[in-house]
Every structure is written in structure tokens, then in C-alpha cells.
TrEMBL record:
Source organism (scientific name): Faecalibacterium hattorii
A GO MF label: carbohydrate binding
Protein name: Glycosyl transferase
Domain of life (superkingdom): Bacteria
Keywords: Glycosyltransferase, Transferase
InterPro entries per UniProt: 6-hairpin_glycosidase_sf, 6hp_glycosidase-like_sf, Gal_mutarotase_sf_dom, GH65_N, GH94_catalytic, GH94_Enzymes, GH94N_CBP, Glyco_hydrolase_94_b-supersand
Lineage, broadest ranks: Bacteria, Bacillati, Bacillota, Clostridia, Eubacteriales
Amino acid sequence: MKFGHFDDAHREYVIDTPRTPLPWINYLGSEDFFSLVSNTGGGYSFYRDARLRRITRYRYNNSPLDMDGHRIYINDGGTIWNPGWQPTKTELDSYSCRHGLGYTILTGEKNGIRAQQELFVPRGDACEIDRLTLENKTDAPRTLDVFSYVEFCLWDAMDDSSNFQRNFSTGEVEVVGSAIYHKTEYRERRDHYAVFWANTPVTSFDTSRDAFCGVYGGPAEPEAVKAGHCSNSVAHGWAPVGAHHFHLTLEAGETKTILFGLGYIENPVAEKFTAPGVINKARAEAMIARYATDAQVDEARKALAAHWDDLLSALQLDSGDEKLDRMVNLWHQYQCMVTFNMSRSASYYESGIGRGMGFRDSCQDLLGFVHMIPERARSRILDIAATQFEDGSAYHQYQPLTKKGNRDVGTGFNDDPLWLIAGTAAYLRETGDYSILDESVAFDNDESKAQPLMEHLRRSFNFTRTHLGPHGLPLIGRADWNDCLNLNCFSEHPGESFQITGPSEGPVAESVFIAGMFVKYGEEYADLCGHRGLPDEAADARAAIAQVEQAALTAGWDGAWFRRAYDAFGKPVGSKECDEGQIFIEPQGMCVMAGIGKETGQAEQALKSVEERLDTKYGVVLLQPAYTTYRLNLGEISSYPPGYKENAGIFCHNNPWISCAETVLGHGDRAFEVYKKTCPAYIEDISDIHRTEPYVYSQMVAGKDAPTFGEAKNSWLTGTAAWTFFNVSQYILGVQPTLDGLKIDPCIPHTLPGFTVTRRYRGAVYHIRVENPAAVQKGVKRVTVNGKTIEGNVLPLAPAGETVEVTVVMG
């Protein structure tokens, strides 16, 4: 069942009913100011940091769902409704939501009045613009009372949701004309404030929630909207809001627009006040003036569209498969950019309070966006590296404003260091910019301990190399990629616990998954050493890699698949010796991607075991059989009911590892089959089962052991976005940046006769045509560049500004 449709011509997803299975959202903003907006106008806004600069409130885990947001109310002679249906839920005569690239358009019609709410964040400004267009489609004049409404958060979202005894006394506003200034705590230590404005003179206003909604009221039935006017309240403490009221008459057939803006302003301390307690509004007034007319807003929308045109032009596909093309060309790259901006911090599943930026997460996200914005990828790498510790480990997560996170001794996630190599290597393959390796980067943001980025990578590599366990496999620490596989934190005996603080202190768990990572990304590190003129270091690194690879082939092999790990007591995890959790997805994907067992047949057998034991109609589950009881020696993974999250759910993030691994072995049919099972465009028809947005990836889907098999959760902010784009663009389509140029090595279903890719690479544009006359899955027979046949399949680097015509014949 579908609740909307793709409009490829306008690059939008059009939602036809407000009653979607869950709120289906979009992200507005691409620099510092961000808003989340749902298909009914719910959502919230923040500046840079979703915790420390939260501008509007949002109540998670609330019922009714999605009440807070960017609200417009229309009182038409006592009939009260919203253009997006929520929160009044008045039945509309027609409704649509168009989610596009950085904008959303909600359109509702009721009793001959059409209201369109267009929301976007302009480039270069810290504000959200909402354009309301009202049209009287009848043949008689109509008088309406129109209201806007946002509820301000008191900046720190954690404090706002918990410290009521203080916050109920700190709310402050100023009202100047149609501008409402939210200056709570500005007098104390803040240098910032928010402003919610309209370009039309107000009839009345409210800044107190109690006055607008009623003390026992709420957004669904605000007292002011029912009364037809606001009370000009000025908030002193309690809950400050912004609400405008306009009493309008529309002649027959007339259209009127009102422009609203929600802006963030930061003043230097010297400019905080123009008089005691009166904020300096000069920057806000300048912002308001930039969006005072429809013509100005139109120009801002054009600039936003041009921005996305440029980003998406870095890679465009024409395959003849409209679903594949729409994902690769539009929605997939769009989601990769959103995950770049957000990491995992702010969604309808992440509150923006706890996680901040992820070290591993942000490094993986680089794989999906580096081709679009290499200069910002460069900055992100340096930013991430500066949170690393001198021993090579890192904060697992950190707040973007403070660059600090939580880290207890002995509780590191031991895969984190290797992801820095993965992200940096991806940047270097894309750009050839080796100067980044010479950039001085602090450790733990302490400039006195700064070292070149190359030294950070060296310590990442050596951290794993020096943290090996009794089987010669890397130590897992708190966990590896699977945050819930906690093998060092609990005793197998009830009532006992221990915490590992070093490689020689007590029982120590090992990870076969990190072994696969060390082989794959260690080899990429060795390649960098070679290109940096460090042949001895490269050789030394490869010797260490070979030892771990051998451990993976012996201690890590279970007979028909790779084991997952060894727990703190030396017992195998992910083995036929186990009663449950006998096979895991992660080491099969990562080890085969690394080439472990490719020559000995073990890689082939591992992927056969995945297909036989883990595959389902909705994707590959994380493990089987599911854990039915809690296991102290395994930790959080067994705390989930069977089929959910890490306990045998379909973790969409690592499904592309299996698809990538299949291409390593030349299995194009199987790789594409795995790709399609979790790809949104291919599963749009089961939106009633899937429930999350049909235009973006989700983190997980309930596995076959769950009562809700096929239901997704945690949409938008997931490493699935980057990894699946990496898979389809570089492993399946085979357009692979290398340190020496673009390599073309497709691995496609044999039924695909060919495709064309336009790829921007190091300043040149490559038009690549792939032909598959023999209907093979993998193999390149001939490559011609500008009409001349070349040796091999790595394209010669072209000068910036040049256009290159490439033909690749498979066979």
C-alpha cells in the first residue's frame, strides 16, 4: 500500500494523505540552521547543535503524536483547520505534502479556501522562511482569522526538559511590530537570541503559551484561535511562544501571501544590549529586511535549487531502471548530505540531547558525501581527528559545539580508530589532496599536543595492532560496530562484574569483525604510506596485517562462516558451538570485503551461509538463531526481543556489506538482489508494513522472528545511507575513485544491458558508458578514453575543466 508517489520531474515525494503510518519528515538547512518538518507541519528547529542551540520545542514519545511544529491555523467563521491537517485534525477537502530538496510544501483546502505553507532554510542565513499563500477560490468575499504559532525552547534542550524550577522563571520576550524576540537568558551569559517575524502588520499577538493555548489547552485547540484573536500577552517566565494573528478579507478569487521567518542571531558581547535589558536588534532587522518580499523569497528559493543542482551533478546515472536512477541521482545522495549535517544527533528517533556527533558515524558518512563536497569533507576529517586521544582511541560520540564526549577508562569502542583511516582514505582517493596529511591536528582538542594528521592515522593503525588478544585477533573493548555486543562488561556468574582496563588485565574479548576491518583499512593505510614515500612503514604494516588475516582464517573461521568474536572467557560467539546466535552478518561482510578467504574458498562459503541462514524477503538479518534469553556475557544485544534491533533484526546498515562482498566475488545478480531488498524505491508498495518514509533508508527493519516482521524504525540518520550509496556507486556500478584515478569495474545483474554515468572527479567531468553485450555479471573486456583504447581499467587523470568520453565493454 502506498500513501504517495515520487515526482521525479520536480524531484519531490508527494504525500497524498496526512494519515501516513508514522510522521514522514524532511530536513531543511544545509549549513548551520536546521529544521525538521513532518508531512503535517510538525517538527523543530536548532542552530548547529540540537542540544545546546535548540530554538523550538519538540516532545518526543508523546501522545497524540507530532503536536509541536511550524503551525498555521485558519479560523473561517468558526471552522478551524491547518494546511497540514495537524494538530486540529479537521478534515480537509484536499491535502498534499511535497517534500523536496531542502524544502517542504504543505497544501490544504477547506470550504473554498486554499492555503499553501512553503518552508525552507535559505542558503547563507540562519533562519527558516515560511511562506503562507491564501487563495479564495469562491465567488464571494471571505473573512478569515489566520494565526502562526511556534513554542520556544529555552536553548539547552536537556535543561529545558528537566530544570523546571528554574526555567519557569527565566522566559523573556520583546515584541516590536510583527517581530517577536525570544531573548531568554540573554541577560545572563548568552550572546544569542531568536526572532519570529512576519512581513505583515499583526492584528494581535501572543508570547505566553498559557494565553494562546489556555492553561489546560494545547496546540490542537488553542483558546486564542477559537476566540478569533490573541490577547497581546508578554511572557514573563513560564513558557514563551511566538504567535501572530491576522484578520484578513479575501475578495472572490483573490490571493494573498504572508511571509514568516524564524531566525537565530548571535551578537558579539560588546553589542549585547542597546539599553539595560534591551537586546541589540540590528542583525535581526537586517535579516528581516532580506526576506520582506515575495521576490526576495523567490530568489532565495532559486539559490537553494541551484545549490542542490550543483551537488547532485557530481554523479548522475541513466540505467533504464527508474527506481535505481531516482535513488542514485536524487534521494540517496540527498540523504547522504543530511547524515553529513546531522550525524545521528537529531531526528524523530534521536532527541538531539544525548548523542551529538559520532566518531565512527561521521567517518562512515564521509563515504557517501565526499564526492559532492570534498572541501567540507576535508574540514570534517580534521574536526573528527581533533577529538582523538594520543593513544589512537577516541570519544565514541561528542557534542559539536564543545567537541567533548563521554569516555571512561577501558570502555572504548575499539573499531573507532580504524574508521578515521577509512574516511581519510576515501577523501584522498576522491581528491588526491595529500596536503591534508600534513595538517597539524590536536589530540582531544589540546593544541599543545598537535601532530600532523598522518600521525593520527598511524596511531589509529597502531592502536589496533597493539591491542590483540590471545587468538591474535583485535580486542573488542566496550564494543565494535555493534554497540550492543558488550563482551567485556559482565561476568557469566550472576552478581559478579568486571571492567577491562588493559590488554593483559583479566579475561579479554576479541572481535573477528575488527580483524576484517584491520585487514581492509590497514591495507588502505599501507597504500597511503607507499604514496607518501614510506616503503618500510608500508611493508611493516602489511606484515602486521598478514598476521591478523591469518588469525581470522584460523581462529576466526567456524567451518562454514566467520565467527563473530570471542567473549571475555575465551568462548566463541557466532559459532555452531553456540545454542543461539550461531552466525552473524558483520564478519561475513567485512572479512569478504577485505578479501579474507577469497583464494581459499572460505569467502564463497561464508556468503553461501549468509544466503541460507540469514536472508529473508525484507533483507538479511543480523544473526540467527535469535537470542531468546538474556546473556550476561553478551550484554545489551540479548536484551532486545527476538527480531528487533541487534537481536536478529534486519540492520540495513550492514546489508550493503553483504552486497559489496558479493561483488568482490563477482556475483552481480546476488549483489543487486541484496541491494533492492532494503532500497526505498523498490519497497514503496509495502509502506503500510514498512511504515517509515519510502524515500529514505531506515536503520533497521524488524526481522523474521518479530511479530512485526518488515516494520522499519530509525529513518534518515543512519550509516545505511552512506554505505548503500558507496555500494551501489562503487561496487555495483563500479565507478571507483582510487589514489591514481577512476577505476571502472562494474558488477551488475546479467540482465542489465548497460548504463551511463556522468561523474565529476578532481575537476574534470567523465561521461562513462558501460556496455554489457555478453550479459555477464563482472569483468571488463575493453576501455576506450576519448576514442583510444587504454591498458587496464583505471582512467588516466584528466586536467581540471576537461570533459572525458569513456566507453567500457564488459566481457
